[in-house]
Amino acid sequence: MMERLLLVLPALLACVSGALIPEPEVQIKVMEKPFICRRKTKNGDMLLVHFEGFLESNGTRFHSTYADNNNQPVWFTLGIREAIKGWDKGLKDMCAGEKRKLIVPPALAYGKEGKGKIPPESTLVFDIHLIEIRNGPRSHESFQEMDLNDDWKLSKEEVKAYLKVEFEKHGSSVNETHHEVLVESIFEKEDEDSDGFISAREFTYVHDEL
Ligand SMILES: [Ca+2]
Ligand SMILES: [Ca+2]
């Protein structure tokens, strides 16, 4: 018993002292802010951004959506580690039209390994222009939009109706059977207690994405 405790103790101490080391921070500089800001970014939102990324060490540009992506901005979801941690930390409370410069330490970027053109232990500098904000698929707003009768749960009919609208928005032709299959697979995954409804909790609970 005592032996086991002794084995556990150093691990515990490591945890505690680890917590005392300050978390690496992203430096955020707001370069430009629009006059009108109807909403600000929050976790779960989908952000459309133009960006250029540089190595702080020598100023090399490793990526630019203007030059390397046919001048097309890119979508990413905030707060789910779709991009580097530094973006999740540095792009909160941002308005559409806003421009920010982020200085991201390696621990919040590509760390010890680096990636592609980015050498290990690189501090990165990003110039980011936020073009558009949309409700992410897991947001509270999306749930309310889907819950047509406001009973705080989604029926198969409600999910189907939502898919129909979404597909039409994106110009896809509507195929009933395809929707049925899609709805079934969504419920299989999301309806955890199998009561035939997706509750608000089941909907907003993010399984292992975070
Ligand atoms: Ca409902
Ligand atoms: Ca359920």
TrEMBL record:
One of its GO terms (cellular component) is endoplasmic reticulum. Its EC number is 5.2.1.8. Residues 1-18 form the signal peptide. Residues 134-169, 178-210 form the EF-hand domain. Keywords: Calcium, Disulfide bond, Endoplasmic reticulum, Glycoprotein, Isomerase, Metal-binding, Repeat, Rotamase, Signal. It is an enzyme of class 5 (isomerase). One of its GO terms (molecular function) is peptidyl-prolyl cis-trans isomerase activity. PROSITE patterns: EF_HAND_1, EF_HAND_2, FKBP_PPIASE, PROKAR_LIPOPROTEIN. Residues 44-134 form the PPIase FKBP-type domain. It catalyses: [protein]-peptidylproline (omega=180) = [protein]-peptidylproline (omega=0). Monomer. Homodimer. Interacts with type III, type IV and type X collagens. PPIase which accelerates the folding of proteins during protein synthesis. Has a preference for substrates containing 4-hydroxylproline modifications, including type III collagen. May also target type VI and type X collagens. This is peptidylprolyl isomerase. It comes from Pyxicephalus adspersus (African bullfrog).
